[in-house]
Amino acid sequence: MINFEEELRRYQPIMEVEQAESAIRNQDLDDMADVALGIIMEAREEAARLGVNVPADFMQNAQQYAPQNFEVPDALL
Amino acid sequence: MRCYNCGFDAEGAVCPSCGAPLATYRDIMTLSGVYYNDGLDRAQSRDLTGAIRALTMCLKLDKNNISARNLLGLIFYETGETVQAITQWVVSRNLQPEENPVDTYLDELRNRPGNLDRMNRAIKKYNFALRSARKGHLDAARIQLKKSLQLNPKLLKARQLLALLYIRRKDYARARYELAECQKIDIASDKTVRYLKEIDRVVREKNALREEEEQNRKGGRQQAVAYRSGNDTIIQPARSFGTGGALSIISVVLGLVLGILVTMFLVVPGRTRSAQMESNERIAAISEESDSKAARLAEYERQVGELEQQMQTLSGRLEAYEGKNTSTGNMEGLMRAVALVMSGQKDIGALASALENVTEEDVDRTQNPGYRTMFDALVGAVGKDLSQFYTTQGVNAVRDGNYQEAVRRYALAVQYNREDEDALYNLAEAVRLSGDNERAKLLYDSVVTLFPGTRRAQDAQVRIVELNN
User: What domains are there in chain B, each with its CATH number?
Assistant: First the structure.
């Protein structure tokens, strides 16, 4: 049996067009590769701190995969 | 496959360029593809809820899967969630700016701003309805949801909420209709399926209750007693009330009490509810009207601002044209004067009358070099005579104590003979007498500068000293 009050609580407001810009900027875009790279970068920093020997060129470009800032077209918003 | 770390096109388990391990990454990419295919299948069979789940998982595994992201945006657009759709499409275009089919969708939105505005208004009405429903204003919420669906019939959440409100009112037929419409958009939405099950359950229970009542009614008939009286068969309930005076009185009293109770518990609350519904609907209508009036007022204010600006611009232009017309009109006097001179007449009075309203400023304002040439020729021919004529008039005006007129006349005398120090000095005197000492000082100063060593220059210097003291 449906409980009306409880059912009503499950409904959420829909985002309006005025909120589109912040919605785009706050998109969580991390995928599995980003998670893996984040862990590897953390490991490299930890290795430097603890003196663990990690090859200097090992995944040296990882930092280029930092989160990106997206451009929102003005004409659209 | 491109290495996720350096972008190198690598084949083996490790990237030969940067050394990043690729075996697991390859599995992840494959899994992302599996989810995309599943999402596509579901979208094609109108299972949009399932498709959204599959495509979201696909993008968690590989954010660069452009096809999945574009499809997810399309599905959001189909369910009326325009902002979610725009978000996915903008991200998609940023991830792949070239040769991305999403440009078509975004161009479509940009080229039809009215469409986007209509969908946004539908969303606003849904949000308003949700707030109203949470505050208990269910009738107002229902009205807003209907308006929202008029603007965008595919706004799934609005339709589901409307169905929920109908279920609350026990209006199962309408609720079922709305849910059928929901299933045309998304066949497998959890909410739609659950509400339909609820309606089926309630209807089943009602039917069962009705059958039970029917059976009870039939059972009651069997309990009646049938007997024959002559040729007639009489059917009489097994237990019948006896007849008696006291029983009749009790029945009447009981009827009255029941009548009062029915009025108190059924009629009065019904009326109250009806009044409340009416007031809610009126509030919603007033709120709607107020919103629209406020928007119209803002639009009118903007238009008034624009019109005022236009009016100022036009007024400026009109003034410029008027100035030009006046100057052109005065040039007729100049031409009449030239005609008089050319005809050989030496009537200075007639000449002065023709040139009454002609000033050098007017001549320059026409921006017509022909008028300037004509004016200079006229000054060369009869300038000294005209100057003398105006000087005489200026003297007369001073004598009459009309200093403003004297200033005007002496100014014309100077205009037609700039080499006459007497004319300039007289003008300065008339200005001083009219009470404008500052301008008089400037004119005296001009006399000293332009005609040094003359008697008028000495007089002017004396005047300057006097005025300074």
Answer: 23-111 (1.25.40.10), 118-213 (1.25.40.10), 396-468 (1.25.40.10)
